[in-house]
Amino acid sequence: MSMQIDIGISDELRHEIGEGLSRLLADTYTLYLKTHNFHWNVTGPMFNTLHLMFEAQYTELALAVDLIAERIRALGLPAPGSYAQFAKLTSLQEETRVPAAEEMLRQLVKDQEAVVRTARSIFPAVEKASDEPTADLLTQRMQIHEKTAWMLRSMLG
Q: Where is the Ferritin/DPS domain positioned along the sequence (predicted)?
């Protein structure tokens, strides 16, 4: 029997926030996987630049999934952790082909922006609950994804 969680957030709001964070976790993990895939498979004149850039991005995303999952756990919910769960929860499209480098950039811009929208969608419940730790996490994630989308977009000219 586990102890009751009493952190000043109602059970209902903890669950609502946790479900939103689970969607964010699924988006982040899916973006991690796609970025890692593109790192492995990119070709063309921009190979070295994109290979290194994608590596920096998937490394950052790998750290982010841990932060998001740990926040879900701190709120008392189980963190999703399977491909099947992520596939149900994510708003991103997987890529099974090997697109050209420019198409990789276009997809990653769209996906980075989609992750921002997912994070932003959780804010009403977070603000209602005065959940500053989650608000801080979301703000940081949005800032990183918006900046990354800008950098990727800039590569497209």
A: 20-156
Q: What is the CATH number of domain 11-155?
A: 1.20.1260.10
Kindly provide the b/e burial profile for residues 63-95, where b requires at least 16 CB atoms within 10 angstroms of the residue's own CB.
ebbeebbebbeebbbebbeeeebbeebbebeeb
Tens of each residue's pLDDT in the chain, 157 residues: 678 888 899 999 999 999 999 999 999 999 999 999 999 999 999 999 999 999 999 999 999 999 999 999 999 999 999 999 999 999 999 999 999 999 999 999 999 999 999 999 999 999 999 999 999 999 999 999 999 999 999 999 8
Q: Is the dihedral of CA 112, 27, 89, 1 positive or negative?
A: negative
Residue 62: exposure state from Cβ atoms within 10 A (0-12, 13-18, ≥19): middle
Q: In this structure, which amino acid lies at residue 91? A: S
Three-class DSSP category at 6: coil
